[in-house]
Amino acid sequence: MIYYIINNNNKNKVQLNERKILLIISHPDDECMFFGPTLLFLQNRKNQIHVLCLSIGNESGLGEIRKNELKSSCKILGIDTENVNIIDHSLLQDGPKINWSHSLISSIISDYVTKHKIEIIITFDEKGVSSHPNHIATFNGARHFIHSSTTSSNIILYKLITVSILRKYISIFDLPLTFILKNQTNLNDFIFISSFNNFIQARKAMTSHQSQLVWFRHLYILFSRYMIMNELQLVN
Ligand SMILES: [Zn+2]
């Protein structure tokens, strides 16, 4: 795996080895569409990775199929399928017009991190990469948990940085700009860059979501920078 980590040698830096880490996503396929480089990096560092998906992605009635696709995708990404958990809550149904309650998400996260002794949470940022309201609500729920829950005191929250639509679809060519802008990030931010083999692995995970493989998904795989690189920022 090729990767770059800002200030890797600093002793005060958050360590990403042998930790219990929870990725929180909104829909099956978010894990490989957006977080592939992160998951593949973490999986190589002996971390115990959990995935909590807040909906079954049932907007088109394919939820039951998509649950299985998520597990297949996570398996390809090296995640133990016992650590992949999918919520099917009546108030957290898939859809851009459905408002997800931040406090409900926060309480679900609280139960999960307590049960599994999670140390680090990773999720979307306030723009949700694709601006999907469910992604944004997922971030707001995680932030609500960090700021309000008594169980969150030692838990670290990272968000996946959203870039402009122009940068989003120039694949590896966004790399120079990412490095130029890295000086504006702080000590505990991370940039993960996949090797070609990792890109192939993430692509394979994407193809396990057969129900979602419409023509433009293939273009996404080819052109999205999120198939190749991720920037994670610490949420204070
Ligand atoms: Zn999504």
Top keywords for this entry?
236 residues; alpha/beta; Rossmann fold; 7-stranded mixed β-sheet; 10 helices; 7 strands; binds zinc ion; EC 3.5.1.89; LmbE-like_dom_sf
Q: Helix proportion of residues, in percent?
A: 25-40%
How many helices?
Answer: 10
Euclidean distance between termini CA atoms:
29 Å
Q: How would you sum up the global shape?
A: globular
| Total of domains | 1
Total strands: the figure is: 7
Helix/strand-derived class? alpha/beta
Largest sheet: 7 strands, mixed
Query: Ranges with pLDDT <50 over ≥5 residues?
Result: none
CATH class: Alpha Beta
- Return the string of H and E elements: EHHEHEHEHHEHHEHHE
Question: What is the CATH architecture assignment?
Answer: 3-Layer(aba) Sandwich
Return the CATH topology.
Rossmann fold
Strand order of the largest sheet: 3-2-1-4-5-7-6
Rg result: 16 Å
* Bound molecule kinds, no repeats: zinc ion
Query: What is the assigned CATH homologous superfamily?
Result: LmbE-like
Descriptive notes:
- The protein has helices at 30-33, 36-43, 63-76, 102-116, 128-131, 133-148, 165-168, 175-181, 196-207, 215-223; strands at 20-25, 48-53, 84-86, 120-124, 156-160, 190-193, 229-234.
- With 236 residues, the protein is an alpha/beta fold.
- It has a seven-stranded mixed beta sheet, with helices on both faces.
- Helix 3 runs antiparallel to helix 9 (196-207).
- The longest helix has 16 residues, at 133-148.
- The radius of gyration is 16 Å and the shape is globular.
- The structure holds zinc ion.
- Zinc ion (ZN) is lined by residues 26-27, 30, 132, 135.
